[in-house]
Amino acid sequence: MAPLRNLALLALVASVFAGAAQAQTQPRAPDLHQLHDALNLSAAQEPAWNTFQAAMQPDPNQEARDRSAGQMMPGLHAPQRVDLTIAAMQADLEDLQRRGAAVKAFYSTLSAAQQAVFDRQTAAPQRE
């Protein structure tokens, strides 16, 4: 059962992350400003929101590493490309785990009604 929960967490974090990183390019992704407004947070919840929002922002160092790896790929031998790809995926997983922890920490500060709003706002769009 734990792997299913992990997949659900991955999907949730990915959808929240997509809203933070790609709000302009994917209009259906959750927008953090809209999410903030929809949650009607109390003043006591604002520090948790600020921590959550900061965790959802793209890491410029990671983006630079990704660009560098992409530029290196054509000049590498197959085993080196595999190693570089694995290292990149491990870094992505660590980032996803960090963001997942931020989602869980923030979510725990929300009321049941706010959690329902968060769930609705961050759900992946339904395919038609």
Q: What is the secondary structure topology, with strand pairs?
A:
Elements: H1 2-21, H2 32-39, H3 46-56, H4 60-72, H5 78-107, H6 112-122
Helix pairs in contact: 1-5, 3-5, 4-5
Structure, explained:
By secondary structure, the protein is an all-alpha fold. The protein has one domain. Helix content is 73%, strand content 0%. It contains 6 helices and no strands. It has helices at 2-21, 32-39, 46-56, 60-72, 78-107, 112-122. Helix 3 (46-56) runs antiparallel to helix 5 (78-107) and helix 4 (60-72) runs antiparallel to helix 5 (78-107). The protein is elongated and about 55 Å long. Residues 1-6 and 19-29 have low confidence and may be disordered.
Order of helices and strands: HHHHHH
Quickly count the helices.
Answer: 6
State the total count of DSSP E strands: 0
pLDDT < 50 runs, ≥5 residues: 1-6, 19-29
Output the structural class.
mainly alpha
How large a portion of the residues is in β-strands, by DSSP E?
A: under 5%
The major sheet is characterized as:
none
Report the average pLDDT across residues: 81
Rounded radius of gyration (Å): 17 Å
- Percent range of helical residues: over 70%
The overall number of domains is 1
Q: Tell me, what's the shape?
A: elongated
Q: What's the end-to-end separation, in Å? A: 28 Å
Characteristics:
single chain, 128 residues, mainly alpha, 6 helices, disordered N terminus
Q: Could you give a short description of this structure?
A:
The protein is built from 6 helices and no strands.
